[in-house]
Specification:
606 residues; mainly alpha; six-stranded mixed β-sheet
C-alpha cells in the first residue's frame, strides 16, 4: 500500500481529553479513541490532528476511522477540507457507496458542486451501485450548478434504479428542475406521486414562488389543506411569499389568523415574512403591528421593517427605525443599508444616501453589492446628476452589469438626455440585447425629443431581433379573488362594460382638470384622439375602475402593477382618489404610491 505523507502537526489539547499524552489505545474504535471527538472539531487542523493520532496508533487504514474523517471534512465543506477528503477517499483501494455519499454531500454544498458528478462517474464505472442516499446529493449538486442536462441524465438513472417514487429523491428531483428554471417538469414529478407528503408540497410551493407563479402556489396550499396534511413552517413561508407577490391582502390576513391559531407566530422567520407580506400588500399598519408584537427581533426582522417604510416612501420613519435598531444593539447587515439607501433614493436625499453608504463601508465594514451600487446610481440619476452617475459607474471596483447600465438609461429617459442615453444603450447591447425595456425606453426618449429617425430605427431593430414588449399588467384582489388586467383589454375577466365604465370615468376626470398626456404615446402617424384612447385603457386604469365598481364606497383599493406606473395614469389616479374619496394604493415595480385627496405619497418624485 502506498504510504501517505503526513504534514507536520502541532498537537493541541482537546476539551476534557488528554489523549495526546497517553499511549495509543489497542482498540482503534474503543470509546477512548479520539475519533469520537471529531463532532467537536471546529477546523480542518483539528481533524488532521486526530488523523495524525490514528496514524500513530497504526489505525489509519481502518474503514471506520476513514469514514469518520471523511464525514467530518464534508459536513461544512471548504476548498481545503474537500481537498483533504478527496485525498483520504483516493487512498481507499475499494471505497464503498457510503464513503462516496459523504463525498457527494460535501461537493454538493461546496463551490465546486459538479465535482460530485465527476467522482460519481468514476465509482459507477468501478461497479459500485448507488443507493437512495446517493441521488439527493447529486441532484442538489446539479441544482446549485444549474446543470439541467446532467440533472436529466441523473433523472434517467433514478428511474433505472427504481427510486423515482422515493420520498427523499422526489423532492430533490423537483428542486433540481426548479433551480434550473424548469418548473413544469417539477410539477410533472409531483403529479405522479401517489401520496405526496408535506415535503413534496413544500418543494413545489417554493418552486412556484421562485418562478413567480404565486397563484399556483396558493392553489397547492388549498389542496394540501383539503388532504388534511399538516403544513410546516416552510409551507407558511412559501404561502406568505405568494401573497406578497400577488398583493393578496385578504388572503394574507387569513393566513395570519391561521399562523396564530396553529402556533407559527412564535417563529421569528414567520413573523418577518408576515411583515414583508403586509408591506408588499400595502398595509403598512399591519406590518408595524406584527413588528411591535415580536418578543425577539433579529437583523432580518429590523431590516424588513425598514425596507417596508422605504418602499412606502416614509423615509423619516425608515431612518428613525434604524436609530431604534442601533439602540437595541442589533448589528445591521447589507439588507439594512440597502433599505436605507432605497429610502433616500425615492426621497431625493442624495447627501443622506452617501452618508449611509460610507457608514456601511467604513464603519460596518460591509462590502457593497450590485444592489447597493444600483441604489446609489439611481439616487444620483433621479436627482438629475447624470454626469456624476456616469462617473460613479465608471469608477466602480467591479465590472458594471447590464442592470446598472439600465438604471442609468432610465435616468437619462427621465431627464431627456438622449446623447448620454445612446452611449449607455450601446454599453447595454454589448452585454445583452434581449430585453424589450431597453428598446422601448430609448425609442420613447428619442420620440419625445423629436428624433423620429432614431426612434423608428430602434423599434425596427427590436422587431428584427424578435424582441417582444412586455405588456403592462395590473392585478386587484376583490373578495379573495385576484383579477388581472392587461393594457388595452377589458374583456379578460368577462366584464363587458368595463371599457364603458372607464370612458365615463375619464369624462368626469376631464371636468376637474384632467388632460391626457398624449406625449407618452410615441406613434408618429397616430392622431391625438387615437393616442388618448390608447392611454385610456392602460392596465392601472382598468384595475382601479374595476375596484370602484366592485367594492363598497370608502374601501381602500389596492392594485399591483408589473411595470412602472406611467405619468398619465399617475395623474389620473390622483384625481380618481379625489372624486371617489378613496384611498388608492398602487404598487409598481419600484415602490408604493398612496393616493389620497388628489395627492400621492411620492410627491410626484418616483
Amino acid at each position: 500500500m502506498t504510504a501517505v505523507s503526513v504534514p507536520s502537526i502541532t498537537f493541541m489539547p482537546f476539551p476534557n481529553s488528554d489523549f495526546c499524552t497517553k499511549n495509543p489505545s489497542k482498540d482503534p474504535k474503543g470509546p477512548a479513541h479520539p475519533i469520537y471527538l471529531l463532532p467537536k472539531c471546529n477546523s480542518l487542523k483539528e481533524v488532521m490532528q486526530i488523523q495524525a493520532y490514528s496514524i500513530k496508533a497504526r489505525s489509519q487504514d481502518d474503514i471506520f476511522i476513514i469514514n469518520k474523517l471523511i464525514s467530518s471534512c464534508t459536513v461544512s465543506p471548504t476548498p481545503a477540507s474537500m481537498h483533504h477528503a478527496q485525498l483520504l477517499f483516493d487512498r481507499m483501494p475499494h471505497p464503498d457507496i457510503v464513503l462516496f455519499n459523504y463525498m457527494a454531500r460535501g461537493y454538493s454544498r461546496s463551490d465546486t458542486p459538479l465535482q460530485a458528478l465527476v467522482l460519481f462517474s468514476r465509482i459507477i464505472s468501478s461497479g459500485i451501485v448507488p443507493d437512495l442516499y446517493t441521488f439527493p446529493s447529486l441532484l442538489k449538486a446539479c441544482a446549485n450548478a444549474e446543470a439541467l442536462v446532467a440533472g436529466k441524465q441523473l433523472h434517467c438513472l433514478v428511474v433505472k434504479y427504481g427510486l423515482n417514487y422515493d420520498m427523499y429523491v422526489c423532492p430533490a428531483l423537483m428542486n433540481m428542475y426548479i433551480e434550473c428554471g424548469n418548473v413544469d417538469s417539477a410539477r410533472c414529478i409531483f403529479d405522479r406521486i401517489l401520496e405526496p407528503c408535506v415535503v413534496t408540497y413544500n418543494a413545489m410551493i417554493l418552486g412556484y414562488v421562485r418562478s413567480s407563479e404565486p397563484t399556483q402556489a396558493l392553489l397547492l396550499f388549498r389542496e394540501l389543506q383539503e388532504k388534511e396534511i399538516e403544513p410546516t413552517e416552510v409551507t407558511i413561508l412559501g404561502v406568505l411569499s405568494s401573497c406578497a407577490l400577488l398583493g393578496a391582502l385578504e388572503f394574507g390576513k387569513w393566513i395570519h389568523e391561521y399562523v396564530k391559531k396553529n402556533g407559527f407566530d412564535q417563529s421569528v422567520k414567520v413573523n418577518t415574512s408576515l411583515i414583508d407580506m403586509y408591506t408588499k400588500c400595502g398595509s403598512l399598519e399591519d406590518a408595524v403591528s406584527v413588528f411591535r408584537s415580536m418578543d425577539y427581533r433579529d437583523t432580518q426582522a429590523w431590516s424588513t421593517m425598514i425596507m417596508g417604510y422605504a418602499i412606502h416612501g416614509q423615509v423619516h420613519n425608515a431612518i428613525s427605525m434604524f436609530g431604534e435598531m442601533q439602540e437595541a444593539r442589533v448589528q445591521p447587515d447589507g439588507l439594512t443599508f440597502l433599505a436605507l439607501l432605497y429610502a433616500c433614493n425615492h426621497a431625493g436625499k442624495v447627501e443622506e444616501g452617501f452618508r449611509f453608504f460610507n457608514v456601511m463601508k467604513e464603519k460596518c465594514r460591509i462590502v457593497p453589492g450590485i444592489k447597493h451600487y444600483g441604489c446609489m446610481l439611481d439616487l444620483l440619476g433621479r436627482a438629475g446628476c447624470l454626469n456624476d452617475a456616469f462617473e460613479f459607474l465608471k469608477e466602480l471596483p467591479i465590472k458594471p452589469t447590464p442592470l446598472l447600465w439600465r438604471t442609468l438609461l432610465a435616468a437619462c429617459n427621465s431627464h431627456g438626455n438622449v446623447k448620454l442615453g445612446k452611449l449607455v444603450l450601446e454599453r447595454i447591447f454589448e452585454m445583452d440585447d434581449s430585453q424589450s425595456g431597453d428598446y422601448v425606453i430609448f425609442a420613447n426618449m428619442c420620440a419625445r425629443a423629436g428624433e423620429w429617425e432614431d426612434a423608428i430605427h430602434i423599434r425596427k431593430l427590436m422587431k428584427e431581433k424578435g424582441v417582444r414588449k412586455v405588456p403592462g399588467c395590473s392585478s386587484i384582489e376583490v373578495n379573495n379573488v385576484v383579477y388581472e388586467f392587461f393594457s388595452g383589454d377589458g374583456s379578460q375577466i368577462g366584464y363587458k362594460g368595463l371599457h364603458r365604465a372607464v370612458d365615463k370615468l375619464m369624462v368626469k376626470l376631464k371636468e376637474v382638470g384632467y388632460t391626457p398626456d398624449t406625449s407618452l404615446v410615441f406613434h408618429h402617424a397616430m392622431e391625438d384622439d387615437e393616442k388618448e384612447a390608447t392611454l385610456r385603457y392602460h392596465s392601472e386604469k382598468l384595475a382601479v375602475t374595476f375596484g370602484l365598481l366592485n367594492t363598497p364606497p370608502g374601501k381602500t383599493i389596492r392594485v399591483v402593477k408589473n411595470l412602472r406606473i406611467c405619468r398619465d395614469c399617475h395623474s389620473a389616479v390622483k384625481l380618481i382618489s379625489l372624486l371617489s374619496e378613496r384611498h388608492i394604493i398602487v404598487r409598481d415595480v419600484q415602490r408604493f404610491h398612496h393616493f389620497r385627496d388628489g395627492k400621492c405619497s411620492c410627491g410626484d418624485y418616483w
